[in-house]
Write the C-alpha cells for this entry.
Amino acid sequence: MKSNPLAIFLQFLWLGCTSFGGPIAHIGIFRQQFVEKERRISESDYASLVALCQLIPGPASSQVGMGLGYRFAGWRGASAAWLGFTLPSAVLMLCAGLWILNGGGTISGAWFITAMKIVAVGIVTQAVLGMWKQLCVDRETKIIALITAIAFYSVPTALMQVSLIATALVAGYVLASDPDTKSNPSIGIQRNHLLASVGVGVVWVLGIVVALSVTNGNVWVDLIAGHYISGALVFGGGHVVLPLLESEFVPPMDSSVFLAGYGFAQAMPGPLFTIASYLGAVTINQSPLVAAMVGVLAIFVPGAMLLSIALIFGDRLTHWKRRLVFVNAAVVGLLFAILINPVFTEAVYSEVTTGLAVLSLLTCVVLKRSPLELVTVMVIATYLCHWLEWI
C-alpha cells in the first residue's frame, strides 16, 4: 500500500466493509493485513501500538487503525484510515435509524426490533462474562465491579458514571502503582510536542466539564454532549460504550429504540461506536443526516485527542497499565448494571421472549458464534414466532 491518504482511505474502506466481529476481531484483522501480509509494521511495533490504545479511553480498534494511518502518512493518514474504516457502518446505521423513523418499529416491523433486543441479551452477557474473567481476577477488583454495578443500577446517571470511574482511577493510582517504574514520562519529548499534548489534554478535560454542565435543553447541544462524554470516558471500547450512551439518551429516547440500535450495530462491520449515527438520526429526526454526522464526530473526537497525546508519549505511558486495573473493574460493573436494566428487562417479558433469550445465550455464550451469525439466527427465530403469532 502506498503511503498516501487516498490509498490509505481506500484500503481501510475495504476493511470497514469486511471487518465483522467487534474490536478484538478488528485488531486481529489489522495484524493479518499489515503485519503478516504487507509487512508494513513489525510484530513488536504493532503490539506496542495495540497496548498503547488499550491504555487510553476511546474506541480501541479505531484508535489502532488511526495509529497505523499515522505511521503510514502522518495525521492525514490517520484521518483517512478513520474515515475509511468508519464510513460503511456509519452509513448502514444511518439507514437503520431512517428505517425506524419511517415506521420500521411499529406493528409490521416490531418483530425485528424484538430480535435486535434479544441479540443484545446474548452479546452483552458474553461481554460481561468475558470481561469479568479477564479483568476481575482478585478480590479487590471483584468487589469494585459489584459495588459499581449496584451504585449505577441504583443511580443510572452520567454524573454517577463519571464519579465511579474517577474514584476507580484515583484508587488505582494510589494503590496499584508500580514501584519499579520511576521514570519521568516527559523526558525525551520535544518542548513543542509536550506543550501541544498538554493543550489537547486541557481541551479534552474542558470538553467533559462542559458536557456535564449543559442544561439548556437544546437537542443539538445534548446530542454533542452525550456523545462526547461517552467517547471520552469509555475504557475498552466496544460494548463498554453501551451504559454510557444509555444514561445519556434514555430517556427521552425509548429504551426499546435504543436497544434496537445496539442490536443493529451487532450486524454491522466496522466499529460499534457508529451506533452514534443511529442515535443522531432518531434523536433529531428533522435533520437525520446532519445529526448522524454530528453524533459520529462527537463520539470519536475525544478518543482521537487522547490518541494524539499517546502517540507523542509512546512507551512512556505503559507504566500506567497497572494503575488502570480498578478502572477496568468499574467498567465491568457498569456493563453488568446495564445487562440487568434495560437489556434483560426490555428484551425478556414473556415465555416466548424468554425462550428466544435462552437461544441467544446458547448461540453466543455457549456455542460462541460470531455476532453476525447470532443476528441471523435471532432474526429467523423471531420472525417464525411473529409468523406463528406468538409475539
Summary: DSSP finds 16 helices and no strands in the chain.
